[in-house]
Amino acid sequence: MTYRKTAGAGAAALLTLASLGIGASPAAAKAPAAAPAACTAGSQVKETLPNGTTWQLCWRIDERAGLVLDKVSVATRRYPEPVQVLQSIRLAQLNVPYDSGETEYNDLSDFGFGGGDLETLTGEDCKGGSAREGSDGGPQAQRRKVLCVSAEASGLAYRLHSYNFQTNAEKVYSKQGHDLVLRTISKVGWYEYVTEFRLADDGQISARLGATGDLSPSDYVRADDGWPIGKNARDYASMHYHSAFWRVDFNIDGKGGEKVEQYDTKVDGHGSMAAKLKTSKKTITKEGSFSKVNRRWWRVVSPTSKNKDGHKRSYELVTGADDRYEAHPETTPDVTFTQAHTCEKFATGNADPQCATKKTILDYAHDKETLKNPVMWVRVGFHHVPRDEDQSPMPLHWQGFDLLPRDFTEMNPLTPADRAGVNGQPN
Ligand SMILES: [Cu+2]
Fold it and tell me: pLDDT per residue over 199-227, tens digit each?
């Protein structure tokens, strides 16, 4: 994976959460006085990471979609006033077709990540973290310990060896970063899926899905569609896809009404030394699906909320490793933007009677409605070719994406006090 920060963090030691105030009572009382509305349908998480960044959100379990985060806001030591980022973020489908063409599942809409399929945390599931109790989202709404909240080291956050030519003063700035991690585990058939959101102390949000458990014992196939697992050339475990979708609804600074922008950079002649590259912006005003070409990226930008430099606040979609499943039209585009409608809950296999003719994101976008409150549907695929090491249990394999703050604050929110004047071209 090409996670900017989280890839290297997997093996990093958990911090002792007691030292962070996580796990005790609502001990993040050091956090700045908070604003966002109380959690109506779920429970609150509000935690301050060692560098002073406080994330606050509501969480709940949807019977189908599993872990849902609502009203996600961030405050930092430098910018202590909490500012909302997301209205909600959740998985929106997991499509699993087998290469044999004989089997296909939609794990969210056919089975669901909540209810009875949601695992109670045990063993080392949440070692070093705090296991939170909440409703499992099933018909009985059983209250169980299902959410793990932890702070994990994310590696070097920044490093600068500065030198002042006037005073000859030198100084090294070096800081370790941390993520607030929210994690649930759902057992669907033989697989166990880890739903994870990582909220970094520099404002980045990462969504990812991990798969572990066991290879399905019933999905052994002819040699052409599988990989030999076990002795010699006897058992072939089926190759298959995991195409995951997430539904992301921004609400930047609680103002809503975000705009979607797409940026492309193309070679445009030559300068005296190197090629000239020209970057152009296209505002996406109507519903539609889009895919990456070289250097293309998207951002969701507030038309009204600005940072202290007068720049519009936004978050950028950063995608990494991805296998596209082009055999379905709905699992082909990288991202789809649609106007928010409450009955449009899943990227595919949508069964809400309120939008009976709208089964997939392509149906949602078909009438090219004007985007007034855009919802972003992100697809990330993984073609799983089983290997001997997948048993047993199978090591976690991950897929996901990052949301990167772009001009959300006028400087790095982790800027140390004596770098505060470094903003714009130095004299
Ligand atoms: Cu798999």
Answer: 999 999 999 999 999 998 888 878 788 99
CA of 401 to the centre of ligand 1 (A): 18
Angle at 62 between CA 333 and CA 290, to 5 degrees: 10
Give the pLDDT of residue 37: 59
Given this model, what pLDDT does residue 306 score? 98
Provide the residue count of the chain: 427
Give the integer Cα–Cα distance in Å for 37 and 328: 40
What mean pLDDT is reported for the chain?
Answer: 91
Q: How far is Cα 425 from Cα 411, in angstroms, rounded to an integer?
A: 13
How far is the centre of ligand 1, averaged over its atoms, from the C-alpha of 279 (Å)?
38
Q: How far apart are CA 369 and CA 346, in angstroms?
A: 18
Distances (CA, A) of 270 to 209, 273, 277, 279, 280: 43, 7, 8, 15, 17
Task: Count helices and strands (H / E) in the chain.
Answer: 2, 21
Determine the Cα–Cα distance for residues 31 and 56; give it in Å rounded to an integer.
Answer: 10
Distance between Cα 400 and ligand 1 center (Å): 15
- Cα-based distances in Å from 183 to 75, 130, 146, 198, 239: 21, 11, 8, 9, 27
172 touches 161 (CB < 8 A): yes
pTM tops 0.85? yes
Distance from residue 370's CA to the centre of ligand 1 (Å): 38
Six-digit token string for 125: 């599931």
Percentage of residues of the chain with pLDDT beyond 90: 84
Question: To which H or E segment does residue 362 belong?
Answer: helix 361-365
Helix (H) or strand (E) holding 18: helix 17-20
The Å distance, Cα 394 to ligand 1 centre, comes to: 9
Write the DSSP assignment of 187-223 as a string of letters: EETTEEEEEEEEEETTS-EEEEEEEEE---TT-B--G
User: pLDDT digits over 279-304, tens only?
Assistant: 999 999 999 999 999 899 999 999 99
How many A from CA of 291 to the centre of ligand 1? 24
Ligand 1 center to 197 CA (angstroms): 20
